[in-house]
Amino acid sequence: MEIEELEYEIFEEGPMVRKVTIQEIKPCIVAENMIRVLLQLDREVSEIIPILVTKYPPGNVNYIENKNILTLNIYERLVTLYPSGKISMNKTIDKEDAIQVVTGIMEVINQLYTELNNGDAVDYSEMKEKLSKIGPLSLYNCLPKTDCEECGEATCMAFAIKLLSGDITLDKCTPLKDGMYNEDVSCLEELLGHQIMETMGWYDSRDF
Amino acid sequence: MANTQEEVSKTLTIILTEGPYRSQYVEMAHNIAESAINNGYGVNLFLYMDATHIPKKNQNPHSFPNVGERLRQLIKKGADVRACVRCATARGHACDKTSYLKGVSITSVYDIPGWVRESDKVITLSG
Amino acid sequence: MDSILIIVDKAPYGYEDTFSAFYVAIACLNKGMDADVLLVGDGVYAAIKDQEPGGSIDYPKVGELSYLIFPEGNIFVHLGSMIERGVEEDDLVEAAHIIDDTKLYQIIKSKTKEKAFVRI
Fold it and tell me: What range defines the domain where residue A189 resides?
C-alpha cells in the first residue's frame, strides 16, 4: 500500500539516532494478518552494526560480514539492519508495534555509540573467531553435564540450545554459578570470551 | 492391476507469460500440455501477464489456429488452468465474469508455490 | 519440488516481467517455500538503488521490492552481467548479493532435483 512517510522523533537527544521514518508498510509475507515494515533511521549506522552483532545471543544472529547487514531474530520476528540505517521487520502487528520495537533497537544503538566513543565497545572482528566456534556441542562440553535440572531444563544439552537462542541465561545454571564447576567456567570463558558471557547473562553483581 | 502401485501420476506445471498470436509460445505450451496429458501426466497451466489474454471468448483469428479453442480442448482433457487476477484485471478481463472461457479460474500468483510443490517438473515459457 | 529460483533477464519498467517475477518470489515466500531471485543480463538493472519510476511511467519501485524478499529470500545479482553493463556494487540496493559464475554454478547444481527454475 502506498503511504506517506511517517516520521517519529524517538530520542530528542540521542547520541546517534533520534528519529525514525516509516517508509513502507506491506502485508507480511510469512504471517497472515500481519505486516512487514520498512523504516529509515535518521542516519547511517555502519559503524555500529559490527558491535551490535556481539550483543545478542549467537543463535539469534545472522550477520553478513561483507555487506555489513545484520538480521536479528528478536521480539518474535526478523529484524534486518542495513548500514544505510534502513530497518526491515516482518511479523508486525501495526505501525505502533513497529515503533515500539525500533525504539528498543535505537536505545541499544545509542548506548553502543556511547560505549564506542568511550573506547568500551567490542567489535565483531575481535570475536569473529570465537563466534564461529560456538555451537550447542561446544557449549555443552563446558557445562557440568549432570542433567541435574536445577535450571528447569531436562538436560544440559537442552540448556545449551536454549542458551544459544537467548531463551535462558547462563546464570540459571546454579551449580556453575555456585562455584562447583570452576573448570567448566574457565572452559566457558575460553570459548565465549567476556562479551558473549555478558550477553548470555553471566555477569550480574559480579561486574568488573 | 499388477502395476498400479508403481504408476503414481506425475504432475507438470507450465507457467506461460506470452499473449497469443504474436509468438508461438502459446502454441508450444498447448503442444507440451497435450502431450503430457496423453502420457498420463496431470497438467497445471498458470497464465501470467499477457497470457491472461488467451482464455478470452470469441476469438476469431484468420491466419492462425484458434488459441481459445485449443485451450478449451485442454480443459476438457483435464488440465487445471488458472489466470493471475492482477494481470487479468489490468487487461480488462477480470471485471466481466463472462469474458473468459468456462473452466478457467482467475486466482493469483499465490497458487504457484502450491503447484510447484506438487509438481515433478515446472517449465516457464516466456519471451 | 521444494524450492524455487526465479530468473530475471529483463530490465524493469520497459517490461512488466521484472516486477511480476518479484511478485512470484514474494508469493512463494508467503507460502513457506524457499525462493530466491537471480538477476542476470539486463535483469541486473532491477537491483539498482534509488529508482524513482514516477512521472509518466508511474510503476511501483522494483528496487524496493527487494526489501520485501530479503532476508527470507536472496537476491542474487550476476557479476559478469554487471561488469558488461558498467554496473558497480555501490549502484545496487543493499540486499543484493553479487555472485560470480562459480557461485552461480553451485547454486544451480545444489539440489537441482528439487529446485524449480522459473525464468520470467
Answer: 134-199
